[in-house]
Amino acid sequence: MNFSGITKNKTLYASLSVLIFWYMLHKALQSPIIPNPMDVFKEFGQLLQKDLLIHLGVSLYRMFSAIGISVIIGVPLGLLLGMNEKLDAFISPIMYLLYPLPKIAFLPVLMILFGLGDLSKILLITSIIFFQVLLSTRDSVKSLNKELFYSIQSLGASPIQVYQHLILPGVLPQILTGLRVTIGISIAVLFFGENYATQYGIGYFIMDSWIRVDYVQMFAGILAISIMGWLLFKLIDLLEDKACKWIKFEQGK
After folding, report:
1. Per-residue H/E/C for 110-140
2. How does it sit in the membrane (predicted)?
3. Given this model, what pLDDT does residue 168 score?
4. How far apart are CA 47 and CA 168, in angstroms?
């Protein structure tokens, strides 16, 4: 086996490492709580032909909606705060007070205010992603070298051109990094939120399988939510490759 070739493919290397550890744990415990990986993959393939794709689709809809709302509102507000010190001094204390709060505790309040459907769950996830996007955008604007502003303004650039050619390219990598950081937390919150007042979503599917003591199906759901997270990370990587091509150039790639 060409081990060096496997390690170069990071996804393959990580997947094999997890599968080997999973199989060893299954053999060591000899318990139905940790099923054979091959049984889980077989069940996963069968569930894809049934209702698993519906659960994944609902969860992805909630995640993409939350990400979209956070970016649409958080990025412009972050740019505004980064460029306006007085406004930032007024808003930042409020952000610092709200940001550390455990947002998941507000799920009952959101369900009372916005109903038991998708909206309350989307808003719960948004409350986490939004602050990360906002703060990442604001801080990245503040970190831009002031001399860059003087240079582009000396060339006669309009305010719109300053945003287009300096600010947006300068903050985009940090925004994407902020999204990466918050994706894992958001999926955990999604899992929690989908255990209440819903019959669809990968979180509901996993907990329903656990209640029915169907551990193979439960692990198939865990596999599905892992793949969903991996796809979201890959999507962000793809966006970075397309929209931030200069990063690889600076790294000499």
Report:
1. HHHHHCCCHHHHHHHHHHHHHHHHHHHHHHH
2. Multi-pass membrane protein
3. 85
4. 43
